């Protein structure tokens, strides 16, 4: 999987360990999700183009580099993807935001789309946010929707991934890079990631 990048920085490993812990409550879980996403974003945006600007330092005039974050679109997959959104926007506050609502049918394990709203994406850099890359079907459905809307430069960011889900996305979308904090062991019989961290949405919002 040449397009899979596991960002295993010590800070990410440390925060991810606390995130996985069943004793970690929703407040800390939300904070850690934001922090890990911020660190992932640092790596996932290395390819973004910069442009030159002339500025004045307290010493002299000089040339610096800047990105155009107005040409960035963040697309969290509802609802758990919302937990990652703030981490990206804290670094690129002028990015536009689209939303795609998808849930996995517990009987068929197939994605069901219930909401979608995207801004104009043109040639924007697009970051699809899905905390748990399990089977990959929800991420794939979101990526398909973005592509049909004209998205070309798409990156998928997730907190943890299963080998099955990462392989599925890699083979289906060889043009898309996947950034994750961990490639876990496997999926269990209920399509949950092992060792995983449970249901990210439930842990973010205390819905169970």
TrEMBL record:
A GO CC term attached to the entry: cytoplasm
Keyword flag DNA-binding: no
One Pfam family this sequence matches: UPRTase
Binding site for uracil: 193, 198-200
Gene Ontology MF terms: GTP binding; magnesium ion binding; uracil phosphoribosyltransferase activity
Keywords: Allosteric enzyme, Glycosyltransferase, GTP-binding, Magnesium, Nucleotide-binding, Transferase
Enzyme class: transferase
Record-listed 5-phospho-alpha-D-ribose 1-diphosphate binding positions: 79, 104, 130-138, 199
Cofactors that this protein relies on: Mg(2+)
Pathway per the UniProt entry: Pyrimidine metabolism; UMP biosynthesis via salvage pathway; UMP from uracil: step 1/1
InterPro entries: PRTase-like, PRTase_dom, Upp_B, UPRT, UPRTase/APRTase
Location of the Phosphoribosyltransferase domain: 6-207
Regulation: Allosterically activated by GTP.
GO biological process: UMP salvage; uracil salvage
EC number: 2.4.2.9
Catalytic activity: UMP + diphosphate = 5-phospho-alpha-D-ribose 1-diphosphate + uracil
Superkingdom as given in the UniProt entry: Bacteria
Cofactor note: Binds 1 Mg(2+) ion per subunit. The magnesium is bound as Mg-PRPP.
Family listed: Belongs to the UPRTase family.
Protein function: Catalyzes the conversion of uracil and 5-phospho-alpha-D-ribose 1-diphosphate (PRPP) to UMP and diphosphate.
Protein name: Uracil phosphoribosyltransferase
Gene name per UniProt: upp
């Amino acid at each position: 999987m040449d397009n899979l990048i596991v960002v295993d920085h010590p800070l990410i490993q440390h925060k991810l360990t606390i995130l996985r812990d069943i004793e970690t409550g929703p407040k800390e879980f939300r904070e850690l999700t934001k922090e890990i996403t911020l660190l992932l974003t640092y790596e996932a945006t290395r390819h973004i183009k910069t442009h030159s600007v002339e500025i004045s330092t307290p010493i002299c005039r000089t040339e610096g580099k800047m990105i155009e974050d107005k040409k960035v679109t963040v697309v969290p997959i509802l609802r758990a993807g919302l937990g990652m959104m703030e981490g990206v926007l804290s670094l690129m506050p002028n990015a536009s935001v689209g939303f795609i609502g998808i849930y996995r049918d517990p009987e068929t394990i197939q994605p069901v789309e219930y909401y979608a709203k995207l801004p104009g994406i043109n040639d924007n850099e697009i970051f699809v946010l899905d905390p748990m890359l399990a089977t990959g079907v929800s991420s794939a459905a979101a990526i398909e929707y973005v592509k049909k809307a004209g998205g070309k430069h798409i990156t998928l960011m997730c907190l943890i991934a299963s080998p099955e889900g990462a392989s599925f996305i890699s083979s289906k979308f060889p043009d898309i890079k996947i950034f994750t904090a961990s490639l876990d062991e496997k999926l269990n019989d209920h399509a949950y990631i092992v060792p995983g961290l449970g249901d990210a949405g439930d842990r973010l919002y205390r819905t169970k």
